[in-house]
Each structure stands twice: as C-alpha cells, then as structure tokens.
Design goal:
Blueprint lengths: L17 H11 L16 H10 L12 E5 L6 H14 L3 E5 L5 E4 L5 E6 L2 H15 L3 H5 L2 E3 L4 E3 L6 E6 L12 E4 L11 H13 L7 E6 L9 H6 L2 H4 L3 E5 L12 H12 L7 H10 L5 H7 L14 H5 L14 E7 L7 E7 L4 E8 L13 H14 L1 E8 L4 H11 L4 E3 L5 H17 L3 E2 L3 H9 L1 E5 L2 E5 L10 H18 L14
Helix pairs in contact: 1-2, 3-4, 9-10, 15-17, 16-17
Length: 521
C-alpha cells in the first residue's frame, strides 16, 4: 500500500517533463546487468510513475516538487533508478525550456551539470557509481556525448565542465559546492554518530543556491529506526513532506507483529512491499522470515516490509544466553588448547581477557579489570596486572591464537607478539565494521544454534546481556546503550574476539597440534 504522498495515477502529458526524459533514457542508457545487460534501459511501471511525478511541472515551468524521497524495501531496485536519474541529470533534457505548439513541455540539458552522489562513506557510493558506469559503458550515450567513464568520476572527454562523482561526509569541506543535482543514498544510515544530519543540511544548502535553475535532490532509504534520529526520519517528519512540497514515494507491506509467523500473511505483505519488483525472491524471503531466528523481527519489518520499526535494542536475550549454559562436569583445565580475546581500556571502560576452548567453543573469563563504584576520577587500569595475567594465561593454557583490540595497547600487544610469537598474537581492530560485523554475526549464530558454551560467569553474562545491537551499512555491531553508560560490554567484545580467534586457529590446523612450550615473562 502506498503510504507516501505520491498522487494516484500519472500526470497528463502536458504536466510533466518526465515523458520526454523517459524516452531519452530508454534511447541512451543500457541495462547494467542480468540477462538483458547491454540492451536499452527500461523502467518498471512503478519507477515510471515516480519519474513522471518527480518531473511534474507547474504552468510557469517550475517544478511541482522541490525534492523527493524514495522509500522502498531492500532489493526493490532503488540503486538502478538512482543511477538512471544521475545520468539523466548529467546528460538528458531535464530542465524546462519552453512549451511546444501542442502545449507540451520541452526540456533542455543542464548547462553545467554537477551531479553528486552523497553517502556517509565513499564505500557506500560504490554500488551506485558502479551502476552508473555499467549503464553508460558501451551505450549510445558514451559515443554521442563523448564520455570519460572513470571508476570514481564520469566526465566529458572534451574537457567540458560537468561530472558525476561521489561525495562523502567531510564536515565543512563540502560547504560552498554548487551541485545541480544531488542523490542522497541510504539515508536511514545517516545518523549523528557519522555526521549524517550535518552532511544532509550542507548538501541541501548547496542545492538551494541554484533552485531557481531547477537544482534538486533525491534521497533513498529503507524504513528507519525511530530511535536513531536519522536523516530518513528528519525528511519523513518534515513539514515539506506533510505540505506536499517534497515528493515522498513509499510502498509498505501490510502486516502486524502477530502475523509475522503466519506464512500467507508474510507472503502477502512481501508482495505488497515489493510491488512490481519481479526479481524479488518472495519465496526465499518468506522462508527466512518464518524460520530464521538470528535476526530481530524489527529488522524484517524495516527492510523487507518497509515499515518503520524501533529495534528491540538488546543484542542477546537472557533465554538465548542461558540456553548455552553448561554445568562443570567438563571444566576448563590447565593445558587445554584455547584461543583468547582481549579488549583493553585505560580508565573509562573495563579491560578483559576471555578464553574459548578449541575443542568445544566453551568461553570463560580469564581475568577482568572493572572500575570500582567508588573509584576516584584519576583511577586507571593496572597495566602491570594485565601484563601478568596475559603471561599467566600463556603459561597455564596452550594458547593457539590471541586477538587483541589495539587502541591504547599497541605497544603491549607488540611485546606480547615478540614474547609469545607473532603467529599467536594478532591485532583485531574492532572499529573496522566489515570484519567486526562478521565476527559478531558468527558469535550470535553460535549462540542461536547451541555451538557455544559457557559456565554462567556473572560478569561475562552481565556484559553480554548489556550489549545493544547497532545497525550499520555492513550489518549488526554491538555497543553500549549510550557512550557514558556504566553498563559495560567489554567482556562481550572479548568473547566475540575469542570465538573468532578459535575459528581461525582451527582453520589453521592448530587443534591437531600437540606441543609443549615454556614461556617466560
């Protein structure tokens, strides 16, 4: 069901420049991928309707809408449409010129087309830029317009001014640009922590300098989490949308939380949310939603049903964690092969060492240093005590792999690598989202399917249950409930690193290794 302000039907031919733009796009752009790659580009009916209304005109030749947002389910086809619009705004007849003898609008190209693809990181713009390049490579437009199609910029071979290029958050360095068109991608990820709202305001201000010349912006988003105050939420709740000045196209699947375990309701809601996106795997998505318990229901509502939903927050439920509890009939013993995860702080957060036994993925706390309740402001972690605990762990157990989060501890980690072997002690930067997302996902999956074990250490359990799920473009990370929160999660981080270290040790064949080693400190 359409829950935006997109008008019903389509505008008349004398009310939109979109008809000529669609004809131009299908003449000069090619399909980027799939079985029809290289053939003339075609919009789906829903994409056609969006384009026609986005380029709708008032009788004086000005735009009916000064900006637009496309909110659709994940995989609906937002990126290809975004790429097509970027090319149209770069080359096509996308500005009103005059009315012809039949009263139909005639378009003209932008004299100085500066098309920006904005995102919170350059990596995030790569998919759209790749799509732009694929639509132009070996297309009629490449030859007719004489294009230089680079990996990060599309421009004219003749040196004529104009380009399509990515733009990422960089504070004041973006101030002063004069784009003729701006695409804002994945705005549900534009949050305060990555400078998203400030970046949005900067891009919007830059566009507003040349609105009389027809400059506008388009944003795309999945349904947002209302607890994150993202740009997607700012736009949706804006009076500009409510008053109809900004176009808002949103198709949602009609389902409530009680229906998410009922197959025919899930399937019908997916069909509604994906509309005419015939490539969507409705059967596969239905199976995932009905049977996969590693993902919160709120994620399904937002990404697949396109409904605004607040994340449940907690990364791990108590029942899930307690299901991995085992008794002490097989305790961790000296000499056991283990992997270690280390997450260190100096004064604010806790510092911990967590082990994971190689043969059964049983995790346990080796040691932890937490700030006492009545500690003075100048309290710091006892570094020597940490150093001694690491040495004792290597003496007590057969440590096969150790992953350490380096901030504040790089010098110490370097010494441990020298002392215990650089093929045993490794850095693992938890602030690298792609790698950390994968580690977090593997840990949670191990808990869900019962591959992980623990002895219900109260501190480890507390830290694991304190952890909150945080959504990033790459997936799910874990974090505290707020930056200054006293509800620490450092042992949860250690446990994730320990399990990851165990997996890499086993992959390296170390579970079969029998060796004795005397280690000094």
């Amino acid at each position: 069901m359409q829950t935006g302000n997109l008008p019903p039907g389509v505008p008349k031919t004398n009310e939109s420049l979109g008809y000529r733009i669609i004809e131009w796009a299908q003449t000069y752009i090619v399909q980027p991928d799939g079985d029809s790659a290289g053939q003339p580009w075609k919009f789906t009916p829903e994409q056609l309707r969006f384009v026609l209304w986005f380029y709708a005109l008032n009788r004086d030749g000005t735009w009916q809408y000064s900006a637009a947002t496309l909110r659709r389910a994940k995989g609906w086809g937002k990126t290809p449409l975004l790429a097509a619009l970027a090319i149209v705004e770069f080359l096509g007849p996308c500005r009103f010129s005059h009315w012809d003898a039949f009263g139909l609008p005639v378009g003209k190209p932008v004299p100085l087309p500066v098309v920006q693809i904005g995102a919170t990181s350059l990596d995030q713009t790569e998919q759209t830029m790749d799509m732009v390049r694929a639509m132009l490579a070996e297309s009629p437009a490449e030859v007719v317009y004489g294009l230089d199609i680079g990996k990060t910029i599309v421009q004219f071979k003749s040196g004529k001014p104009g380009s399509i290029r990515p733009k990422a958050t960089a504070g004041r360095t973006n101030e002063g640009n004069r784009p003729s068109f701006c695409l804002m991608d994945e705005c549900h990820h534009w949050v305060s922590s990555n400078g998203g709202p400030e970046f949005f305001q900067t891009l919007k201000r830059n566009i507003e300098k040349t609105t009389k010349a027809g400059s506008r912006w388009v944003s795309t988003t999945n349904a947002y989490n209302p607890s994150e105050d993202s740009v997607a939420q700012i736009i949706h709740e804006s009076e500009m949308v409510a008053q109809g000045y900004w176009l808002y196209d949103c198709l949602e699947g009609g389902i409530d939380p009680e229906g998410i375990r009922i197959e025919h309701l899930v399937r019908q809601a997916l069909i509604e949310a994906y509309g005419d996106a015939s490539w969507a795997d409705i059967d596969g998505l239905t199976r995932t939603i009905l049977h996969d318990r590693t993902t919160p229901d709120s994620t399904y509502f937002r990404f697949f049903f396109n409904q605004i939903a607040e994340s449940s927050g907690g990364w791990m439920s108590k029942s899930e964690w307690d299901a991995c509890l085992v008794d002490d009939d097989d305790p961790i013993l000296p000499g056991d092969q283990i992997a270690i995860g280390f997450d260190g702080s100096i004064r604010g957060d806790s510092t911990g060492l967590v082990g994971a036994r190689l043969r059964d993925a049983k995790v346990f706390v080796i040691d932890v240093w937490e700030r006492p309740e009545n500690a003075h402001d100048d309290w710091e972690i006892d570094v020597l005590s940490v150093e001694a605990a690491v040495a004792e762990a290597f003496r007590t157990y057969r440590v096969e792999w150790m992953y350490c989060d380096p901030p504040y501890w790089q010098e110490a980690i370097g010494r441990w690598a020298i002392e215990f072997g650089d093929d045993y002690v490794y850095e693992f930067w938890t602030n690298k989202p792609t790698r950390m997302v994968q580690a977090v996902e593997r840990f949670r999956s191990a808990v869900t399917v019962g591959d992980l074990k623990h002895e219900n250490d109260p501190k480890l359990s507390r830290h694991v249950l304190n952890a909150q799920a945080r959504e990033v473009p790459q997936g799910i990370l874990i974090q505290k409930d707020s930056p200054r929160s006293k509800r620490k999660i450092d042992l949860a981080i250690c446990a994730v690193l320990a399990l990851e270290a165990r997996a890499d040790a086993i992959a390296d064949g170390r579970l079969k290794i029998r060796r004795s080693r005397v280690v000094g400190f």
